[in-house]
């Protein structure tokens, strides 16, 4: 370990003396050499500055730990190494991106709403005229159609179905099957959570649930699957049907997000499901 | 509880490795997430703290790699280095910034070795375990890192040690 005595003492030995990683003999050699000793003092000053305490901000600490736990509970199946390939630019712009997603959701909700309101305004007089003309017989006819359908089965119901589809325009979509709000693509589950919260808040602040259902919110290409049972079971069997539906792609995996009203008056609960397998990936409160 | 126990030291590690508060918070978050996700893979061959520092160091170095792909606003500032290559250290400039800046000029493996030694106080064997290199390499990296820092921070006032401020 010791260099030859006739060789100038090098930085490696001096640095190791500072760290107490040399023999007593080597340490003595360094301390006995004025040049090496000066160098040692210089290294010591650097080391002292580096070891100055880094005081963490308590609120930042709580926030980071909370976010870590939420992300972890989200239970993304991707191994930790995948987080290393997250896109560049995440750090300082996370909040901006979440805000951008929220703004996008707001725009996505607002544009169809404006179009729908505009079309509804155009159609309103005709609707009232039609209503005056057909209302007296409509209720009876509808009742008859339903009776026929029930008695004749699905084959005989094709005409009735066409009738219904022709009268039920897209803006009269039933509330029990509202479209999912497409939130976009996320590399970080934490961003997905933020986007769901933002979309939920936006949906609550912009319109009532019935109005939202009539707004023609953007739909995903993914149809609703038979995952509703798994989703409801993951929430609370007594929570009733979902009150908000969203879809996204999280780390390359298409996911559905079903939001349920809390049965104990606390925050609504979001359930993240992989629609292809009905696997519940995570739950979190809004 | 586990995260709270280790947060401060991992944050300190990430703060020194990344050189700024924003990246440090992101790196710390990534590091803690990697730790909780990797708990099942922790086999007990190393101490938990050594293992967690290894995970955290990798997370911080990854954050640095990501950051390199982003424009660094400091690059737009004029270069104030003198002819010798070492920047004149104006005492009105915070020592903290000088340290951070000097550290960022070190190659990441060298920086990691120096930070693990001087910030976390690990010995050469532990640092070697964290970085996956022999203790001799650690010794060499630390020495070269300190030499480079000494050159850059030549006039650093030894009486002024400024703790890193909160973000």
Q: Can you put this structure into words, describing what you see?
A:
The complex is a heterodimer of chains A (286) and B (167). Chain A has 286 residues and is α+β, with helices and mostly antiparallel strands. Chain A has nine helices and five strands; from the N terminus they run H-H-H-H-H-H-E-H-H-H-E-E-E-E. Chain A has helices at residues 11-18, 24-32, 34-50, 58-74, 90-152, 158-167, 189-206, 209-213, 228-235; strands at residues 181-186, 244-250, 253-260, 269-274, 279-285. A five-stranded mixed β-sheet of chain A has the order 1-2-3-4-5, sandwiched between helices. The model of chain A is unreliable at 1-7, 77-93, 120-178 and 207-223 (pLDDT under 50). Chain B is mostly helical and 167 residues long. Chain B has seven helices and no strands. Chain B has helices at 2-18, 21-38, 48-68, 95-105, 108-118, 124-131, 135-152. In chain B, helix 1 crosses helix 3 (48-68). Chains A and B meet through helix 1, helix 3, helix 4 and helix 5 of A and helix 1, helix 2, helix 3, helix 4 and helix 5 of B.
């Amino acid at each position: 370990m010791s260099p030859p005595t006739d060789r100038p003492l090098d930085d490696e030995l001096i640095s190791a003396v500072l760290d107490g990683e040399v023999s007593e003999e080597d340490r003595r050699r360094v301390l006995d050499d004025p040049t090496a000793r000066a160098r040692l003092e210089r290294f010591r000053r650097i080391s002292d500055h580096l070891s100055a305490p880094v005081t963490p901000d308590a609120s930042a600490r709580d926030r980071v730990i909370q976010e870590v736990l939420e992300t972890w509970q989200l239970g993304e199946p991707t191994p930790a190494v995948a987080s290393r390939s997250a896109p560049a630019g995440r750090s300082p712009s996370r909040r901006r991106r979440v805000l951008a997603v929220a703004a996008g959701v707001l725009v996505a909700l607002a544009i169809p709403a404006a179009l729908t309101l505009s079309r509804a305004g155009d159609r309103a007089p005709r609707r009232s005229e039609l209503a005056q003309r057909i209302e007296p017989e409509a209720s009876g006819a509808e009742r008859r159609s339903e009776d026929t359908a029930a008695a004749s089965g699905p084959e005989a119901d094709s005409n009735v179905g066409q009738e219904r589809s022709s009268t039920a325009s897209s803006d009269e979509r039933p509330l029990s099957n509202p479209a999912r709000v497409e939130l976009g693509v996320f590399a970080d589950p934490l961003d997905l959570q933020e986007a769901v919260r933002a979309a939920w808040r936006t949906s609550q602040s912009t319109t009532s649930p019935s109005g939202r259902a009539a707004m023609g919110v953007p739909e995903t290409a993914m149809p609703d699957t038979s995952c509703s049972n798994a989703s409801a079971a993951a929430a609370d069997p007594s929570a009733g049907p979902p009150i908000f539906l969203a879809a996204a792609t999280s780390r390359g995996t298409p996911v559905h997000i079903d939001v349920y009203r809390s049965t104990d008056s606390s925050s609504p609960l979001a359930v993240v499901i992989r629609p292809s397998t009905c696997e519940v990936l995570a739950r979190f409160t809004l | 509880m586990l995260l709270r126990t280790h947060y401060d030291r991992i944050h300190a590690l990430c703060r020194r490795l990344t050189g700024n508060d924003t990246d440090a918070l992101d790196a710390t978050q990534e590091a803690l997430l990697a730790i909780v996700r990797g708990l099942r893979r922790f086999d007990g061959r190393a101490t938990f703290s050594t293992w967690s520092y290894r995970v955290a160091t990798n997370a911080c170095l990854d954050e640095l790699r990501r950051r390199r792909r982003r424009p660094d606003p400091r690059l737009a500032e004029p270069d104030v280095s003198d002819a010798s290559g070492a920047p004149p250290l104006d005492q009105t400039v915070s020592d903290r910034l000088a340290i951070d800046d000097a550290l960022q000029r070190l190659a990441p493996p060298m920086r990691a070795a120096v930070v693990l030694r001087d910030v976390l106080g690990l010995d050469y064997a532990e640092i070697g375990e964290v970085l996956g290199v022999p203790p001799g390499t650690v010794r060499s990296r630390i020495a070269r890192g300190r030499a480079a820092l000494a050159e850059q921070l030549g006039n650093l006032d030894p009486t002024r040690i400024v703790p890193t401020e909160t973000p």
